[in-house]
């Protein structure tokens, strides 16, 4: 009798695959375990078992599972259910979900091993020089890995040569899979048991330890032992005793000290002390209402203005969930928010907090995952970014989605292109957990769901301690330029306000949503603008690095001394980025400390945390930043926020431009005046624009009504669901024909609006030409049926020979 398992391989393939196993293996294997399986001619992959059965595959002969890795499942059944939902809803493959969902160390490294074929007699005279070098090396060393051969030959491209030697029968190849995770260990020092008696200790000090430094080290050890009965870290002992490694080594060689190595977690939370916090009347009322609404609905939207104290309400709900011995997932849109939140959560809940995000190393992410599997009672509160929805929860009771409107919850590349907020709803439902979304500027979709009755809404309209919302000041920069009242990109009114705020000992935040020094470099003589060689986009100028860079593909080039076309030196910058604003601020306010927060200054793991800590402690007076500073950061001493050009957000070619402009500006304005009323200065060319007036008046309701009216008229969410298809190919004509074929094929099947194909604003990225198709699915049409038609059309598309090389990227709910 035959036994089989179905597995997911970490590849972008539409199917699961069936492999053969022995009876003993069949009985041992559990769903969610990892196995090594052969795939293709010579590759091996780490696969996840998703089913066990006795039905052989019909279309192919099942291969044998190569190796079983796990005795117990590393993926839970709830996780597999979520993976399937993500794959179905976002029209992606299970292999893509698998690759995204798990830490990279779960997928074991595949290494090609080369060894001599001892059955083959080799005529050395027939070998090329490079083949002889490899043959000679293999006679000295039985096996070689590819990277070792690369080092021997001094070149990277060695696969064709190895394949040729394999075809000649000189060498044989096999794939070795090895575990990449390495536990972190620390060295502890202990005193051997035979030194524990009083006589032995006296002898130890008087005779064995002969030098003053050795005695000092011993006395330090005895002082520290009561506080560390399980052992003292070697590095801590040496630091406390202020002696060298050589002194310690000498005592180890004499047998006075013994060293033991213990595995430790890389992710450690520091001890902290809880701060007493009393909820205000408004907060307590909101908390009571949330708990009441949770009895009727599992999902509640907390619409609380900036500075109203939503986080404290979250903490109270977390405390209630902990009393019920439940796990809590606290989702944040950006890593920026985890820095402050972790400190506050750790103060409140100590060791029960764990963090999971992309700035963690692969080893750290692996350890968080394993701790949640093996010690769920120690992993009660998980705070993380969007990938945290895929963690192995066992008893999830509460999910909190902070800043639920934020676009960072949507993954755009690679697939699956999921939205973490929406997947949090699915995750909470699978555990029958409660879900709280919080925002000062909720997304239109979530607010609409409240009106439909899918979610319940709770309002929090007052700031903590009744602090008024920041006062908005509009500056018409069109008039300011006419009156010569501009210094660089700052109006004199804004400069005066910054000076006054700084003189009062308050801090300042300046928002400019472009990084670099300038987005465009232009020749004043011929008008030439340096473009990326691989993308149809201008290169951004970075003055500090004296380089031009592409933000899409990473291409860079040295700053040109003269025009690359007409050779004149009349080159000027157009537009402004955070780097230029920082430079202007340093000239305007030289006596103050200024820092910049954007992707370029926060690449290091702890760079952002360091800047935030300095700003919080008053070591920095002014922060210049992109949208990274808009997302929930809580600073007590910010007196003024300046937005240099509101119009940059208003006129973006996107149906959500006005909604996002409102959300971004109101959020960044909320950084001001957390303890007492602050000021916000908005520079704009159009102070009477509807959205600008809605921002000034904090009028979310009016913005919502206006946007809903437009979206109803123009068939946009939440009235229509959007599915976006993007076609990519190196040949412009090929991608044009492919996208046109798809549109015509879809129109035959679907009686719904299909827009395109159209060229996007940037129609070439990384040497690939792009064409977009938009499918609008009305609320009364079946989304499931629409997706099935799209998948059938894609299958037909892939069978057309001239379109096989055209890549189609599907993005459901791309907004």
Name a few traits of the molecule.
alpha/beta; Arc Repressor Mutant, subunit A; 6-stranded parallel sheet; 35% helix; 23% strand; globular
Topology:
Elements lengths: L2 E6 L8 E5 L1 H6 L5 E6 L3 E11 L13 E2 L8 H13 L4 H8 L7 E8 L12 H12 L2 E3 H8 L5 H9 L3 E8 L5 E7 L7 H11 L3 H13 L7 E2 H8 L3 H9 L4 E7 L16 H14 L4 E6 L5 H14 L3 E5 L3 H15 L3 E4 L5 H13 L6 E4 L11 E7 L17 H12 L2 E6 L4 H9 L3 E5 L10 E6 H6 L3 E2 L2 E2 H12 L3 E5 L8 E4 L16 E3 L4 E3 L6 E3 L12 E4 L3 H11 L5 E4 L9 H10 L5 E4 L12 E6 L3 H4 L6 H13 L9 E6 L5 H7 L3 H15 L5 E10 L2 H18 L4 E5 L5 E2 L2 E11 L4 H16 L8 E6 L3
Parallel strand pairs: 12-17, 12-18, 13-15, 13-16, 14-15, 16-17, 19-31, 22-29, 22-30, 28-29, 30-31
Antiparallel strand pairs: 1-2, 1-4, 3-4, 3-5, 6-7, 6-8, 9-10, 9-11, 20-21, 23-27, 24-25, 25-26, 32-35, 32-36, 33-35, 34-35
Helix pairs in contact: 2-3, 8-9, 11-12, 22-23, 25-26
Write out the strand line-up for the largest beta sheet, numbering strands in chain order. Answer: 14-15-13-16-17-12-18
CATH level 3 topology of the largest domain: Rossmann fold
CATH class of the largest domain: Alpha Beta
Poorly predicted tracts of residues:
269-274
CATH 4th-level superfamily of the largest domain? P-loop containing nucleotide triphosphate hydrolases
Q: Helix share of residues? A: 25-40%
Distance between the termini: 51 Å
Number of strands: 36
| Main beta-sheet strand count, sense and barrel state | 7 strands, parallel
Number of domain modules: 6
Mean of pLDDT: 87
If classified by CATH, what would the architecture of the largest domain be? 3-Layer(aba) Sandwich
Global geometry: globular
Derived structural class: alpha/beta
Work out the radius of gyration: 31 Å
Total helices: the number is: 26
């Amino acid at each position: 009798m035959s036994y089989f398992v179905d597995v997911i391989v970490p590849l972008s393939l539409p199917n699961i695959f069936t492999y053969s196993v022995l009876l003993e293996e069949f009985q041992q294997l559990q769903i969610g375990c990892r196995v090594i399986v052969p795939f293709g001619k010579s590759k091996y992959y780490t696969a996840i078992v998703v089913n066990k059965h006795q039905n052989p595959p019909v279309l192919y002969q099942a291969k044998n599972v190569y190796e079983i890795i796990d005795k117990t499942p590393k993926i839970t059944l709830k996780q597999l259910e979520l993976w399937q939902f993500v794959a179905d809803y976002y029209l992606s493959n299970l292999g893509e979900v698998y690759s995204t969902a798990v830490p990279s160390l779960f997928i074991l490294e595949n290494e090609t091993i080369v060894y001599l074929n001892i059955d083959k007699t080799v005529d050395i005279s027939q070998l090329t020089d490079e083949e002889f070098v490899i043959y000679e090396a293999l006679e000295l060393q039985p096996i070689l890995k590819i990277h070792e051969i690369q080092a021997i030959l001094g070149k990277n491209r060695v696969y064709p040569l190895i394949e040729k030697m394999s075809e000649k029968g000189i060498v044989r190849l096999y794939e070795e899979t090895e575990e990449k995770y390495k536990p972190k260990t620390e060295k502890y020092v202990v005193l051997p048991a035979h030194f524990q008696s009083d006589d032995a200790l006296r002898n130890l000090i008087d005779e064995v330890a002969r030098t003053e430094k050795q005695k000092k080290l011993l006395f330090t050890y005895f002082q520290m032992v009561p506080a560390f009965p399980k052992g003292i870290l070697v590095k801590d002992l040496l630091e406390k005793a202020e002696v060298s490694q050589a002194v310690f080594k000498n005592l180890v060689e004499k047998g006075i000290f013994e060293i033991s190595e213990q595995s430790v977690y890389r992710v450690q939370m520091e001890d902290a002390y809880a701060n007493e916090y009393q909820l205000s009347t408004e907060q307590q009322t909101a908390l009571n209402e949330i708990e009441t609404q949770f009895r009727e609905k599992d999902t509640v939207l907390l619409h609380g203005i900036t500075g109203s104290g939503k986080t404290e309400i979250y903490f109270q709900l977390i405390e209630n969930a902990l009393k019920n011995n439940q796990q809590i997932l606290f989702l944040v849109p950006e890593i920026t928010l985890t820095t402050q939140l972790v400190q506050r959560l750790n103060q409140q809940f100590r060791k029960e907090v764990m963090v999971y995000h992309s700035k963690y190393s692969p080893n750290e992410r692996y350890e968080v995952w394993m701790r949640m599997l093996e010690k769920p009672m120690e992993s009660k509160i998980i705070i993380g970014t969007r990938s945290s929805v895929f963690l192995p929860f066992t008893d999830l009771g509460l999910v909190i989605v902070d800043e639920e409107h934020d676009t960072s919850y949507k993954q755009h590349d690679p697939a699956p292109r999921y939205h973490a907020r929406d997947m949090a709803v699915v995750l909470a439902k699978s555990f029958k957990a409660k879900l709280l979304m919080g925002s000062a500027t909720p997304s239109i979709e979530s607010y609409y769901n409240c009106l439909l009755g899918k979610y319940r809404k709770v309002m929090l309209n007052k700031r903590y301690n009744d602090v008024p919302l920041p006062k908005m000041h509009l500056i018409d920069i069109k008039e300011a330029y006419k009156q010569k009242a501009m210094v660089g990109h700052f109006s004199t009114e804004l400069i005066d306000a910054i000076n006054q705020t700084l003189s009062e000992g308050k801090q300042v935040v300046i928002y400019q949503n472009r990084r670099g020094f300038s987005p465009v470099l232009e020749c004043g003589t011929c008008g030439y603008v340096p473009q990326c060689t691989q993308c149809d986009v201008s290169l951004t100028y970075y003055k500090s690095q004296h380089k031009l860079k592409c933000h899409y593909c990473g291409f860079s080039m040295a700053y040109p001394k003269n025009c690359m076309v007409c050779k004149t030196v009349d080159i000027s910058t157009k537009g402004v980025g955070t780097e230029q604003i920082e430079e202007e601020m340093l000239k305007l306010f030289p006596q103050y400390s200024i820092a910049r927060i954007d992707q370029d200054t926060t690449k290091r793991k702890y760079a952002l945390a360091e800047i935030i800590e300095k700003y919080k402690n008053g070591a920095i007076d002014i922060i210049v930043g992109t949208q990274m500073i808009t997302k929930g950061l809580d600073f007590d001493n910010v007196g003024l926020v300046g937005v240099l050009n509101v119009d940059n957000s208003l006129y973006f070619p996107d149906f959500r431009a006005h909604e996002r402009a409102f959300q971004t500006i109101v959020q960044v304005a909320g950084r001001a005046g957390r303890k007492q009323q602050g000021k916000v200065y908005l520079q704009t060319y159009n102070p009477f624009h509807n959205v600008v007036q809605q921002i000034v008046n904090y009028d979310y309701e009016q913005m919502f009504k206006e946007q809903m009216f437009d979206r109803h008229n123009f068939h946009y969410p939440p009235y229509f669901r959007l599915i976006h298809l993007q076609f990519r190919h190196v040949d412009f004509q090929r991608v044009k024909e492919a996208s046109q074929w798809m549109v015509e094929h879809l129109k035959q099947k679907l009686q719904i609006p299909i827009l395109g194909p159209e060229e996007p604003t940037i129609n070439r990225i990384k040497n690939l030409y792009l064409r977009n198709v938009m499918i609008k699915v009305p609320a009364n049409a079946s989304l499931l049926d629409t997706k099935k038609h799209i998948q059938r059309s894609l299958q037909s598309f892939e069978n057309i020979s001239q379109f096989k090389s055209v890549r189609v990227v599907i993005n459901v709910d791309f907004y």
